[in-house]
Amino acid sequence: MTEFLSPQEAQQPHDHSRCVSHALDAAEQVCAREGARFTVLRKRVLELVWQSHKPLGAYDILETLSRDDGRRAAPPTVYRALDFLQEQGLVHRIASLNAFIGCASPEHRHEGQFLICLNCHIAIELDASAITQAIAGEANAHGFTVQGETVEISGLCAQCQEAA
Amino acid sequence: MTEFLSPQEAQQPHDHSRCVSHALDAAEQVCAREGARFTVLRKRVLELVWQSHKPLGAYDILETLSRDDGRRAAPPTVYRALDFLQEQGLVHRIASLNAFIGCASPEHRHEGQFLICLNCHIAIELDASAITQAIAGEANAHGFTVQGETVEISGLCAQCQEAA
DNA sequence: AGTAAAGTGTTATATGATAACAGCTCAATT
DNA sequence: AATTGAGCTGTTATCATATAACACTTTACT
């Protein structure tokens, strides 16, 4: 079975069709395990989210569905699919961009942390325990119980720094 | 001169008028230092943002300006004031809530980290070097140059846990 | 086949943010 | 004190993101 690329690899040029097919395969498995219905629409939306390593807006997805698929789609159609995919841990929402990106490791539930390049707009997903631990420590010091974390770091990726 | 309250203190019942007046005083100083104009509108918007320790939406501010102040205000009026206040480091925007909150330490420039209570909606501002360091470490490991960070932790604050 | 639950289509609307231009205010200069 | 120009605010229109409510369809299960 193919593997998801590491953050380093995902930044380099690569055969992205493998990312997509692996993501869809992994999604099939997750949904099967959860007894969730991975419908044609949901699969297509996930495929579109995975069309690159850049976060994609809901209305971008909507436009593609209407234009390329000839599917009549209004916003709720897309948002419902995205809600489902988020519930299954297959996509993450990037709050600072109002956009969505495929999860790089859907087999275990987590909230990603993201490095977002201001130049090329790639979003590199991390799941760094060092960050989670630091947050947990601070939260604990304030008697705060963590339920969810939004960690979105903007800056320049390695590729774009070299180019500049 | 009064001081801003610590996160712990801000969560307790307190004389909030002191928070407001201190925030306005501090803002005067920051603007004076920067040679920026702290106009009536900007001051009033900052005061409204500081009306509690909960993030406030732009349209909430707008409504108050129109209703209580009898000031004719459209969205750009509020957003421009908020933009200015953010530039001066006097308010932070909470991306996950589309809302704004007064900065607890405007004397030095920073992006806050926030603990946001899902129950009472208070937002506790941190500036924890442990978190910043952890993020810097991970970013560095990926050759990523950090320019901005969004760290918003949702959960239950100490008060609300006790209550439950 | 019948039924209930889940999924999708459809219309309308809520919510958050910005573009573009007009008019006003105030501080610095003359 | 009058002038002037940059910066601030008002105003209208519009864009962008997201959800509510209800109808219809598909699916899984009996």
Automatic annotation (TrEMBL), chains A, B:
Keywords recorded for this protein, A-Z: DNA-binding, Repressor, Transcription, Transcription regulation, Zinc
GO biological process per UniProt: negative regulation of DNA-templated transcription; regulation of secondary metabolite biosynthetic process
InterPro entries: FUR, Fur_C, WH-like_DNA-bd_sf, WH_DNA-bd_sf
CC terms in the record's Gene Ontology section: cytosol
Tagged with keyword Repressor: yes
GO MF term list: DNA-binding transcription factor activity; transcription cis-regulatory region binding; zinc ion binding
Annotated coiled-coil segments of the chain: none
Family indicated by similarity: Belongs to the Fur family.
This protein's name: Ferric uptake regulation protein
Organism: marine sediment metagenome
Lineage: unclassified sequences, metagenomes, ecological metagenomes
